[in-house]
Amino acid sequence: MSNNINDYNFELPDHLVSQSPYSDRPESKLLVVKDDSLIDVKFKNIFDFLPKNTVFIFNDTKVVQARLIFDNKEIFFLEKASLNTFIAICRPGKKFKLSKLHYFNNYEIEVINVLIDGRREFRINNLDISLEDFFEKYGNTPLPPYIKTDNPNQYRENYQTVYSDKSGSVAAPTAGLHFSKEMVEIIKEKYKYVNVTLHVSLGTFKPIDVEDLNDHKMHYEDLIYDQKTLDELNYYKKNDYFIVAVGTTSLRFLQSLYNPKLDQFEPSVDSTDIFIKPGYEDFCIDALITNFHLPKSSLFVLVSALMGLERMKRAYNYAIQKEFKFYSFGDSSLLIRNSGKIIL
To answer: Rounded to an integer, what distance in angstroms lies between the CA atom of residue 35 and that of residue 56?
Structure first.
């Protein structure tokens, strides 16, 4: 398979980049990619294509209301550094010089470090609530820039999964947005599931600006797990359950901790910059639920590595012809890698 990013390009009409969420999450469209078949159904019908011994791997990260907008300035939260300090990008950069004080709703926000890549470290000197509560109260929903709206907070609830729990992401794990509370209850009743946590950073969506994929570097993203999580994953792996990663972030969590030589998950890292690209073969999952991704993106490269480039191009051509919606608020796909394990 090619390592040239230009081979992962395709024509995507602008009107297929979804600008708003589905009012009823399970009514979104689902494209099932299984062997040489493409099956077009509603997302609520996904259970029809999965065996009874399916285990769903959910990323339970919660989106931070990361955008602080005031006085024609913006601070975009990236990660917490301490109780009252955080790393962020900001604009315009010239207004955020070292030691500069900014005032927002009676809070004093100080630039305490300018990092080499242009990011800033901020401290809220008179913070009287937790940093998480501060952004939850005053921040704006960090919708992707291609979603055009004057009121991003109208989608605050839509841009969280119904099972979100641990705050720390600056973008939603969008494959999970299709699940309603009722669907999650069905999974709890009839299937198995494991919650894992990968806090999504801007690195997940960093454009590939090099021609050779081997030269692209991902940003690190934090993983949160305990031994109980690893024990559950290893139990389901050992007992040959049908493992379905809900989203590319869940997949990247799993692959970061998976030891293919021992066929088990190990506590090896607490952050990951894994880039799944052509040549990657040691997948620990049987299927992936994921939205439709943009051309020449690391996520389209990932699904091509999982399923094969030609198969994914054929699936995406079909999706475009059938007017599937792309990206965060768009439709979804079920990519079945190991169809031989399915006994319905």
So the answer is: 21
* Residue of 260, 142, 275 lying closest to 208 (CA atoms): 275
Tokens of 94: 């010239």
Residue 79: closest CA among 15, 135, 7? 135
Give the CATH superfamily of 5-63+158-341: QueA-like (3.40.1780.10)
pLDDT value, residue 344: 63
Question: Which pair of tokens denotes residue 167?
Answer: 């705050």
* Cis peptide bond N-terminal to 278, omega within 30: no
Beta bridge partners of 269: none
Beta bridge partners of 195: 58
pLDDT tens by residue, 37-71: 999 999 999 999 999 999 999 999 999 999 999 99
Phi, psi of 105 (to 5 degrees): 50, 45
Sign of the alpha-carbon dihedral angle for 173, 176, 180, 186: negative
Q: Where are the beta strands (DSSP E) in 200-278?
A: 221-224, 242-246, 258-259, 264-265, 271-272
Write the single-letter amino acid at 158. N
Query: Would you list the domain boundaries of the chain?
Result: 5-63+158-341, 67-140
Determine if the pTM surpasses 0.90: yes
User: What would the pLDDT profile of 3-30 be if each residue is shown by its tens digit?
Assistant: 999 999 999 999 999 999 999 999 999 9
Contact present, 63 and 170 (Cβ < 8 Å): yes
CA 200 from chain center: how many Å?
6
Per-residue pLDDT tens over the stretch 262-301: 999 999 889 999 999 999 999 999 999 999 999 999 999 9
Task: State mean pLDDT over 98-112.
Answer: 95
- In the three-class reduction of DSSP (H, G, I as helix; E, B as strand; rest coil), residue 168 is classed as strand
- 67-140 in CATH: which number? 2.40.10.240
Torsions phi, psi of 80, nearest 5? -75, 135
- Return d(Cα 271, Cα 290) in angstroms, integer: 22
